[in-house]
Design a protein that fits this description.
A four-stranded antiparallel sheet has the order 2-1-3-4. The protein has two domains: about 60 residues, Dna Ligase, domain 1; about 90 residues. It is elongated. The protein has about 170 residues and is of the alpha+beta class. Helix content is about 50%, strand content about 10%. Helix 2 packs antiparallel against helix 3, helix 2 packs parallel to helix 4 and helix 3 runs antiparallel to helix 4.
């Protein structure tokens, strides 16, 4: 899964919706909220096209048979678990690395992006029309990101204070 997220638009019930992430669009497709005939568009495309004609999203275009009854000789479809938001995982990893790096005075360099990714992830999860998991990871990333930033600032403040005291004692006769 890449971190570059295209913003997709789709038409449902004669109304344009979006922008939405590819993750949210895939969840809408797999949940049946939008159909293979639904037209979609993103930057770089010349025209609106049906999902079934879009290779990167054509995961359900030919799978309408999955919803036939089990009497037709097919097993019942498996329930799909919601996908985890990538930014939640990135936030958590950056937060943990930031906490570890705060001992070396550089935790804020990783802590601040962890906080940003955590807030963006929570926004994606809360505003998504379909279920996206990762809320706990996003919150943990926020907490560790804030802790890394505050810890780094405290360490720098203590060292600055200590160095200022050493400098004043060295000049006193």
């Amino acid at each position: 899964m890449t971190l570059v997220m295209a913003e997709w638009f789709y038409v449902k019930e004669n109304a344009q919706h979006g922008p939405t992430s590819e993750l949210e669009l895939r969840n809408l497709i797999s949940s049946g909220a939008i159909q293979p005939e639904t037209v979609i568009w993103r930057e770089g495309m010349t025209n609106w096209v049906p999902i079934k004609e879009t290779p990167e999203l054509n995961m359900r275009a030919n799978t309408t048979d999955l919803y036939q009854s089990p009497q037709a000789g097919m097993a019942a479809p498996l329930s799909a678990q919601p996908q985890t938001d990538t930014l939640a995982i990135v936030s958590l990893v950056l937060g943990i690395l930031g906490l570890l790096a705060s001992c070396f005075y550089i935790g804020a360099i990783l802590g601040i992006p962890a906080v940003i990714c955590g807030h963006l992830s929570l926004k994606n999860i809360n505003n998504s029309p379909v279920a996206i998991s990762g809320k706990g990871s996003a919150i943990a990333g926020l907490i560790t990101g804030y802790l890394a930033t505050v810890t780094t600032l405290c360490v720098v403040a203590v060292i600055t204070f200590a160095l200022s005291k050493v400098g004043t004692h060295a000049t006193t006769p």
